[in-house]
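Section 5.1 Outputs to date
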Amino acid sequence: MTGGVVVVLGGTGRNFAAGMSGGIAYVPDEKGDFNIRFNPAMVELEKITEDETDRDIMAHLEEIRELP
């Protein structure tokens, strides 16, 4: 992915974000081990609060809803 937004609804495998060079991916970390399953070469890992996540995801869904 070189831009855009991805909302992951399930789990991820190892090496998540390999080839990703831009954009945002919202990934649940239910097991608390996502920091060892992503590719840190070109992306940064950042925890966000639930309020931030809800607000951002809802804003993206509103944008999609308004598309023709």
